[in-house]
Write a structure and sequence with these properties.
With about 290 residues, the protein is mainly alpha-helical. The protein has one domain. It contains 13 helices and no strands. The protein starts with a helix and ends with a helix. The relative contact order is 0.23.
């Protein structure tokens, strides 16, 4: 039952991230990376505080390694988020998103060698197939006899993926040491402080306030969905193997790609469409074998 519930949480994270990144792309293009990250983090810090305030003093007492794990996860995810937001701002949503699939093997590798987590052969095969489909979408051409060009924003997302794969693993460890709500609150308050300090130093607070008032619906939807996704993801990591939770959650790329195609009118080539079909089928079968 635990793993099945973890799969459900991963599915919730998939849906919330799929729609959330669509709003994040619009926000970063309108307001900037730091402002977008500040609003998301502040929303999470405020909403989650009533659920975690009783445990904050224990966390700050340094009686175990929880604080250091949460701090490490927060630092890594700060760099990853800024790189990811820059990628979303520069590139096509339907092409930037699939590269996030590379987070899966890194998180799975760390879970296997550090936490000794083992998954079945069929699950490994399906994860590889899912990754293949998602990565295929990111390529402009499959004619390997020519020089392959990738879409704009890919460099940023590759760098962000390295950090995010490590962050995914640390979120899983941190959620198990504390709980899913505490690690999300800690990361939110950490990033809110860092991003506000930067915005304040650049004297952009008044501009951000005007942007917030002018785009309430867009920003609320973005903040709500992204925080729901991270909370659901952390719960999934405490109930299911990290490799499975990350693989299913990363399938939100499929939702984002479809939104990019049908809402932003972004065009995909034939091999990219084939990759999308492969990814959808692999994700659905993986849910069946994992649930």
């Amino acid at each position: 039952m635990g793993v099945g519930l973890g799969v459900i949480f991963a599915f919730v994270a998939m849906l919330a991230w799929g729609f959330g990144d669509f709003f994040i792309q619009k926000s970063t293009r309108k307001f900037g990376d730091w402002e977008t990250l500040f609003l998301i983090s502040t929303f999470g810090a405020v909403v989650l505080f009533p659920f975690v305030y009783k445990d904050i003093l224990y966390l700050l007492s340094f009686q175990d390694h929880s604080f250091l794990i949460l701090l490490g996860a927060s630092l890594v995810i700060l760099f990853a988020a800024l790189l990811d937001f820059e990628a979303l701002k520069r590139g096509k949503l339907s092409v930037v998103e699939p590269i996030y699939a590379l987070e899966i093997p890194l998180a799975a590798f760390l879970a296997f060698f550090i936490l000794k987590e083992v998954i079945s052969s069929i699950q490994i095969l399906l994860i590889i197939l899912l990754m293949f489909g998602l990565i295929l979408i990111s390529l402009k051409s499959y004619h390997f006899s020519r020089k392959i060009w990738l879409e704009k924003g890919v460099i940023f997302v590759f760098l962000g993926t390295i950090f995010m794969g490590l962050a995914n693993f640390l979120v899983g460890v941190g959620a198990r040491l504390t709980d899913a709500l505490m690690i999300n609150w800690f990361m939110s308050i950490f990033m809110a402080i860092i991003t506000f300090s930067y915005i304040l130093s650049k004297k952009r607070v008044s501009k951000m306030r005007k942007d917030l008032l002018s785009e309430k619906k867009l920003l609320f939807g973005m903040c709500f969905l992204d925080n729901i996704a991270w909370v659901a993801f952390a719960f999934a990591m405490t109930l299911a193997p990290i490799a499975i939770a990350v693989a299913l959650s990363e399938s939100y790329i499929i939702i984002a790609v479809l939104l990019g195609m049908f809402v932003n009118k972004e065009k995909l080539r034939m091999h990219q469409k084939i990759g999308l079909i492969i990814a959808i089928i692999a994700a659905l079968i993986l849910v069946y074998f994992s649930g």
